[in-house]
Each structure stands twice: as structure tokens, then as C-alpha cells.
């Protein structure tokens, strides 16, 4: 029979191994957000990126007004932020507006487009982005899915995606499909508004 001291010394290697295994389990658990949080996890590098033509966050961001705010032919109910009284729709940030279904109309385009669930800073083949063309985004909107717009097309933004094979940007082809393709346009025409049951998208 092995003496107790010898037995103890022969088992000392188990301690660091068990500690490493426990650390690995804790690390894996910490890196996986709870399922109820997954859609709300936003990576900072994604919010700061202009990937796929989206609005970005940061000091150098050019704030772009949401074209659905004060859009003609869509009735928005607005109230003054100062007095709370009903007010005419304005884009200067002095009123808060809601669409006919009671949902707040964001004044500015969101930097969270294609950044939920911990998506990265590029529109890759494994993590593609929504297309920017309103005619294509309408497919997502009509399916009841979130379809945020890209920055507006104009004289200072032609929407060139600068696609590179293997690098991107890649976009989804249609909702509910796993097909991806090179993004064709990385801006949204502000004159093309999506109408979903009288609500501007």
C-alpha cells in the first residue's frame, strides 16, 4: 500500500488541471449571453462602423433625419417636448411623434442596424446585412420584421459598396432565406418610403 504522503504528492497535478477546467467552464458561460438578451447585445465596433451603408455612432457621425418623420401622406401625432401640448411635426428635435399605431418615430436613423445579437463590424458571408434599397426592405417590413433604412442617397453619397470577393459587403437576398449576394447599393433613397398598413417604414 502506498504511504499517504506519497499518494498525496502523486495527486498534486490534479489541482491545477481541475482549476483550469473550472476556469474554462466559467469563461464559456460568461461569453454566452442569456437567450433573452441575445437580440439586445450590441458590439461597440459594429455601432461605430458604417458597414453596408448604415448610420454609424461616434463623434464623426453625420446625424441623418429619418425620412419617415414628418413624411407626407402619413399622419403622425406629435407633442412638444417643452410643453407636452399637441404640435406640428418638425425635424429639429423639439417634438416627439408617434405613427398611427402609436409607435414612436425615431428622429434620426439608428446606428443599431445589423448590429443586434452581437454582430460584427462587417457584412460578411457568415453575418450578412439587410439590403439598403427600400423596394427590397419592403419584403422584410411586410413580413413583420425590422427593416431599418441606410443613410440617404444623394450628391454626397452615391452608395458605392466597394464590394470585394470574400470580404463583402454581403446582403441577404430575401427574408426567410439563407441566400446571400454582394450588396448592390449602400444607401437608401429618401424619397422611397415603405407603406405598411399606413405606417411609414
UniProtKB/TrEMBL annotation:
The keyword Signal applies. Keywords: Signal. It comes from Tribonema minus. This is Uncharacterized protein. Residues 1-20 form the signal peptide.
Amino acid at each position: 500500500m502506498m504511504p499517504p504522503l506519497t499518494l498525496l504528492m502523486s495527486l498534486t497535478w490534479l489541482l491545477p488541471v481541475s482549476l483550469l477546467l473550472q476556469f474554462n467552464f466559467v469563461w464559456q458561460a460568461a461569453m454566452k449571453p442569456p437567450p433573452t438578451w441575445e437580440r439586445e447585445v450590441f458590439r461597440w465596433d459594429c455601432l461605430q462602423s458604417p458597414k453596408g451603408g448604415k448610420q454609424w455612432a461616434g463623434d464623426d457621425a453625420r446625424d441623418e433625419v429619418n425620412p419617415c418623420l414628418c413624411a407626407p401622406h402619413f399622419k403622425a401625432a406629435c407633442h412638444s417636448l417643452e410643453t407636452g401640448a399637441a404640435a406640428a411635426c418638425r425635424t429639429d428635435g423639439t417634438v416627439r411623434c408617434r405613427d398611427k399605431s402609436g409607435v414612436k418615430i425615431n428622429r434620426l436613423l439608428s446606428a443599431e442596424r445589423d448590429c443586434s445579437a452581437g454582430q460584427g463590424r462587417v457584412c460578411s458571408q457568415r453575418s450578412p446585412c439587410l439590403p439598403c434599397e427600400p423596394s427590397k426592405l419592403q419584403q422584410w417590413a411586410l413580413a413583420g420584421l425590422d427593416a431599418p433604412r441606410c443613410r440617404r442617397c444623394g450628391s454626397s453619397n452615391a452608395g458605392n459598396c466597394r464590394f470585394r470577393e470574400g470580404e463583402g459587403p454581403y446582403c441577404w437576398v430575401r427574408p426567410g432565406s439563407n441566400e446571400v449576394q454582394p450588396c448592390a447599393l449602400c444607401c437608401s433613397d429618401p424619397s422611397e418610403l415603405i407603406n405598411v398598413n399606413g405606417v411609414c417604414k
